[in-house]
């Protein structure tokens, strides 16, 4: 390496450092975690969530997720260096040292725990902390490099945010947040295996036993189809028997579910088609985001008023019809 001769502004270097630490957190993953947290909070508060509590909980969740992703980058440094796709990340490229990344991750975790404890409650803080621990110990350390079921069991880490959101509002956990946990847990395999089908060769190169690498594309698409068949009806349990959502969410969930099943079915018929895998992967993200948006809309008092008014009007029309 050689140094540039002359006086250089420290600002570009500072911006690069900030950008590198930002990239360590894998920021593209975090919004999906936050929208599940927000949806849970809206349902728990019956559509009247405290905006300050919402902001604090989402910030605490962001810090926890950022800590977990940074720790994951440190642990998977060897894999990231070996894969062409990830070699330019801050750690394998040498722009950030592992020790500094570790300090960064610890600070993020402490800030998350403190923020949630002070402004929400201890249960929410402990749940966020457990998400970091589960992601690192169970998924990254025990499963990722040793089992084809790595992302099935490891998916529990990504399903914890709704528990955090519900606990932040209510201070406890009921059947509804656990149903949201189960929904995201079951959604994760179709989502992640679709991605694994796209980058199967990368995983094979570094010896990570993702299902497409070990069992092949056909077995993987069969598993994706089976999980998809479970995800859609589970999403409707929120309506019955739990009664935590109504007809507006139900319509959204059914429409989204039909498209989800359609894409999973097409992939099942064409296991080696990476474009179909990519289509399912992208749609799975949209599916979860719109499903959570549907939960939020359905929980709003205004929505309840509109549905009630429409129901009353429909009842009046039916009652006015003369009996045959």
TrEMBL record:
- Predominant place of localization: membrane
Which pathway does it take part in? Porphyrin-containing compound metabolism; heme O biosynthesis; heme O from protoheme: step 1/1
Q: Which GO terms describe its molecular function?
A: protoheme IX farnesyltransferase activity
Q: Which reaction does it catalyse?
A: heme b + (2E,6E)-farnesyl diphosphate + H2O = Fe(II)-heme o + diphosphate
Q: How does it sit in the membrane?
A: Multi-pass membrane protein
Cleaved signal peptide residues: none
Pfam families reported in the protein's UniProt record: UbiA
GO biological process annotations for this chain's record? Answer: heme O biosynthetic process
Q: Which residues cross the membrane?
A: 29-45, 51-75, 96-116, 122-139, 151-169, 175-199, 224-242, 248-268, 280-297
Reading the lineage from the top rank, the first entry is Bacteria
Q: Which GO terms describe its cellular component?
A: plasma membrane
Per UniProt, subcellular location reads as: Cell membrane
Additional comment: Carbon 2 of the heme B porphyrin ring is defined according to the Fischer nomenclature.
Functional summary from the UniProt entry = Converts heme B (protoheme IX) to heme O by substitution of the vinyl group on carbon 2 of heme B porphyrin ring with a hydroxyethyl farnesyl side group.
The family this protein is said to belong to: Belongs to the UbiA prenyltransferase family. Protoheme IX farnesyltransferase subfamily.
**Record-given protein name:** Protoheme IX farnesyltransferase
Organism encoding this protein: Desertifilum tharense IPPAS B-1220
